Amino acid sequence: MFVQSSKDIQREGETTRPAAGGEGRPLTVLQLVPSLNMGGVERGTLEMTEAIAGAGGRALVATSGGVQAPRVPRLGGTVVSLDMASKNPLTMWLNVGRLARLIRDEGVDIVHARSRAPAWSGYFAARRTGAAFITTYHGSYNEKGFAKRFYNSIMAQGRPVIAVSRFIRDLIMARHGLSEDEIIVIPRGADISVFSEEMVGNERTVKLMEGWGLMDDSRPVIMLPGRLTRWKGQESAIDAAAALKARRGPDFLLLIVGDGAVGGFADYLDELAESLGVQDCVVRAPGTSDMAAAYKQAAVVLSTSIEPEAFGRVAVEAQAMGRPVIATDHGGARETVADGESGWLYPPGDVGRLADLMDQALNMDASARAHMGMAARARIHASFTVAQMQRATLRVYEHAAGRPFVRNI
After folding, report:
1. What is the pTM of this model?
2. Given this model, what pLDDT does residue 261 score?
């Protein structure tokens, strides 16, 4: 349901209605996202809201809502309440008209779709109004069956299409027949003002470890952050922990950090650890909003996804914190982790190699660990920061709109 008029939008975002024509008015970007809860799509939306406002533009976000929706006005943007999460064809079609009215009323220059259902509505609304249409291809998307392939194809209709990694760029070219010139690779990144070891005080780490009941456990931590879901590879990590314990005893802690549905897979992981005899060195902890403090406690961080990650936020954030990373050798990790320099890559499904690398990481002396940590931080600072992602995306907006933002980017 469309619940806000243009006047409502102006009041919430504290902006004035733009004048007709391009000159002398702020460049206006409308991002489309199903909801604003937790995840990479949502984080990217918020990061670009802040960047657009900082460049003197107007940032509108059409969304069904979510726990992070209140952050949009605080970052300088405006929330437009629309049912962007619905996959009902009727709702999606009605949203075409609602978005077209919004585009005309607010002088929107660019429609930036970040997910498939809202992209279908945004594409036709942009065609009706002449607004530029851009997409970000955030994931690899399941392609089983003609209907699913057709549903996914809307994400290749942006001009340009933004890919979050070279892996995703190559997937788009193979699936949709786009040329390399029609795709711009803009990796996601870590906020190096947040993910910096120097920024994390001891009180934060103490609070976190006390909350997890681990304050008195002095064993080195092998950390696996991520949602509790089979494709994140928690099973492989527990299997590798069993192999590692057979070599060196229980002198380490595999800390699995993340939330999931009550019971089900979480219970299965606990049962697996017990059946393999590693319940004394495998601990599950709930997810935390202070991941920087969590990474600081780790000797090494794992990214064990059994399917390719489109980008892989964990590997980038951990390296920004100066922590070596062990990641599966596929997807975005091949671009973010320098094997043998800032971390290690292991073949998908090779639990033995994963155990070898966990052992190697724990056996590193202080000098080798510091050297790898510096290499990891340098790699992220050079190529994978939020600020770099924001600047590159703002340049895409300017090119699509044919005019610059008010402030330098």
Report:
1. 0.88
2. 61
